[in-house]
Structure formats: structure tokens, C-alpha cells
């Protein structure tokens, strides 16, 4: 998992500001930037993309960065920014609030809302980007924390900073396969820190339920090939009742069994259209994802997607490439 790094010092002085502005608008967020250092702009950016979450460290001279309504209408990544100064101070003017943020505090920025961030001295800060959809706290509840200077403290906040800095400096010890777990770790830490700054009962309960739901979904995803996977197995693995498990899944619009079935069929559909798996029979693909009975698999697949799995494969891979190379995909269901 490489960290992407950019230094304006590697460019001619006259090109530095424009190159930095273009790079940060793409990798971070689009803003209108003004500074007195245009002629010799010395700045650095390091970005670690973990998929759902992104970590960055940014350093630059005094400037003013405005997130305008026009930029939001043009492109909104639908993110929350958690910005933590490592050196210097930031002034955030956002959602009608003014926050003076030093190295002992952080501020949450909603990219869907306009605002201005100013630093009157050179600054280096850590940014944690989390998609709104990934953060397990309702936006209506989180709005109380946006745009305020929030203390890092010595507990969860300090842990969040330490983990983020460790990941930025130690990516060589992790593999690409670790990306999803590390992203979940970062999102969970951000959620826990923010919940600690909100109404303890409501926010903590809401965050706790959503974090549990995320863990359950991850558990299901990793065990879709297990034919014995069922709501009772999932509930037992998380020390909760089946009734409570079903309550957690109410907002998904599916029962737990329905969620398992949908995810299994999605994996089957993915494999059926993968030309590198053309040598594997349709029956084997169904069995791989929890459908050992070929007839039951064909029925479930057709009900979900309106076409038998063998026909679906021929549409997307081609009969001449399937199974034994004789165009017999349909017969090998």
C-alpha cells in the first residue's frame, strides 16, 4: 500500500502553486485558494488511500481555502473531513460556526456545506476522509459536532491520531489484502471519537448498533461460501439473539437470510461473467457460493436476475469460451 507523495520543491518556483492546487483538488477536495506565496509556494502532500477511508498529511504556507456553493454543485464527494493540526493553527468558518483549532484539537468539515479554512502561519495537518455513507452515525446527530473545535484528549482521540500516523509511516508492513480491514479500523475509530463528543446515550447507541451491523455484514461476506451460514449462526457468532439480529437489519430492506442470498447470488453473477473462470462449470460456481444443488441454484438465479445462469454466462463470456470449449455451458449447469 504505497503512500502517494507530492513536493512542490521538486518543481520550478513559478509552477508550484498551480501544481499543488491541481493535485489537492483532485486527491483531497476542490477549493478556491488564495495566498501571498504564489511565486514560491513550498508545500507537501502525502496520501494513503484505504478505499473507504483516506489518510493525508499536508503542509503549506499561510493561505485561505474556500469551499463554495458553486464547487459543491459541481462536485461533492459526500465526505466528512477530520482535520487535526500537527503543527500550527487552523481557523475554520463552517456551518455558521467559528473554530480556532490547534494541535490539541480537531475539526470536522462536511464537504456538502460551504466554508472557509484559514491558516495565518505555516501549518501541517493530518486529514482523515470518511464517506458519509460509511460513518455509522446519523448525519442529523453528527451535525452537532461539525465546525467545532473538538479536543483530542488522551483517550480515543489520541489513539485515532496515533493509528493514523502509524499507518502513514508504516505502509510497507501491510499487504493490499489488509486495506479493507485497515479502512474499517479507521472508520470505527473516527466514529467512536465522534460519538464520545456527542450525546452519550443517543450517539453511542446509534454508533454502536451501526458498528455491530458493519461487523456482521463483514462476517457474512467472509463466509458466503459456507453452506451452513444462517441467521442463527450469525447471531451466535456475535453473542446476540436472532430477534435482535433481525432488528439490526431492518434498514437494509431485507431479512438476514435475504441478505445472505442476495450477496451469494451477486458473487455467482460476478464469477459467471469472469472469462478467467470460463473453465469452471456453472454448477461448480453455484456450489462455491453456497448452492450445492444445481436445480436450486438455477431457480434462485433466474428469480433474481430473470435469466438462467448458463444463459447469463453465454451472454457475457461467449459459449465458445465456456467450460470445455465446446459451447456446453448450459448443459453443465
Automatic annotation (TrEMBL):
SMART domains: HTH_ARAC. Keywords: DNA-binding, Transcription, Transcription regulation. InterPro entries: AraC-bd_2, AraC_XylS_family_regulators, Homeodomain-like_sf, HTH_AraC, Tscrpt_reg_AraC-type_HTH. Residues 214-315 form the HTH araC/xylS-type domain. The keyword Transcription regulation applies. This is Helix-turn-helix domain-containing protein. It comes from Micromonospora vulcania.
